[in-house]
Amino acid sequence: KNEVEQSPQNLTAQEGEFITINCSYSVGISALHWLQQHPGGGIVSLFMLSSGKKKHGRLIATINIQEKHSSLHITASHPRDSAVYICAGMRDDKIIFGKGTRLHILP
Amino acid sequence: KAGVTQTPRYLIKTRGQQVTLSCSPISGHRSVSWYQQTPGQGLQFLFEYFSETQRNKGNFPGRFSGRQFSNSRSEMNVSTLELGDSALYLCASSVSRPDTQYFGPGTRLTVL
After folding, report:
1. Is the pLDDT at B98 greater than 90, yes or no?
2. Hey, which bits of A1-107 come out as E strands?
């Protein structure tokens, strides 16, 4: 079992839908990253959070330390949000990655 | 500010050769981390350098090594290349550790 699990693995939705991607981890972590990777490989760090909630534009990330769970939400999704979203936990100064969620937003 | 740059962007090598990849972090960033991404294993942590010292190392064989220079630029080296080393190699920099990381575009290495 991976130490960082994401669900779903693949997600297809219509433009405008509210999107939720989940990340669960089985080990203690000090912080959690959400990354976005577009086709071609470029990775953008969306959030780094260790508690509570962060918001940036249409993106919202939450983390519940007790439940070892984090969610990434996208409001009013758009085709340009199509990408792979990866969560990664920081543990002992190392990063453990989830396998990613491939999101496809249809126009 | 210029982003993280990696050179070369693409590289083709044959088994048994060695390769050196370069990463220039964002100006002022002192931490550089290296990652390997393959379709099968996803993203995996290779190592992290901070102020010219290796601070952490992932679960990779000794053929994978790296270093960081006084200007924070970093290189990673893979010796005796194997077919399985074909991957996208990403570096990321941050101001300190732990901190938000900024990723470079990656070097796509193909081993034939």
Report:
1. no
2. 4-7, 10-14, 19-25, 31-37, 43-49, 52-56, 59-64, 69-74, 83-91, 94-97, 101-106
